[in-house]
Amino acid sequence: MAPHPPTLPGETWSDTHRPTDPRTGRETDWLMYSNDGFRELERHECLRRLGQAPVGRIVHTRQALPAVLPVNFSLDYDGAVLLRTSAASELVRAIDGSVVAFEADEVDAVAHSGWSVVVTGSATVVTDPVEHERLTRTGPRSWVPSPQEVFVRIEPELVTGRELVGGRSMYGVGLTGAT
Fold first, then answer.
1. Which of 113, 61, 114, 112 is nearest to 90 (CA)?
2. Which residue segments constitute the domains of the chain, with CATH numbers given?
3. Per-residue confidence at 15, pLDDT binned at 50, 70, 90?
4. Nearest 5°: CA angle at 74, between 30 and 94?
5. Residue 44 pLDDT > 50, yes or no?
6. pTM for the structure as a whole
């Protein structure tokens, strides 16, 4: 039998090698980085926090290299990330039909605390006229308006998040310099 991957203190493994989160006692498909001391956020908590963030970062491939751009956004009723941009933008051409990542966070460098949420999924330009009209009324407002704008929808296929509270790890150990 192959050795098990590293575990958190108290973490156990079932016969199918699915980790059990020691904080909740529940099996999980995976722990983001199971031994780094951050608290993982549940999907609903990730989406709640995303809904409060004004700006995030779209991560995509540009000329075979990773590219990261800050963008304003909103969440749709189903948790999809919505972007609004110029129909002629290079971003639209780069991401339409591709799998992308979208990240938003909030960090307090003084208190050594914060959170980060990543949504990974397919990005598509909204082409349905009825849907486009709905998003014109309810979707994000462009910070750089243009004559012809499109909406890009990122499906929330994988939603992950993590948090560090008050400069302390989930192990209860204070971080260097934290009070």
1. 61
2. 38-164 (2.30.110.10)
3. very low
4. 75
5. yes
6. 0.74
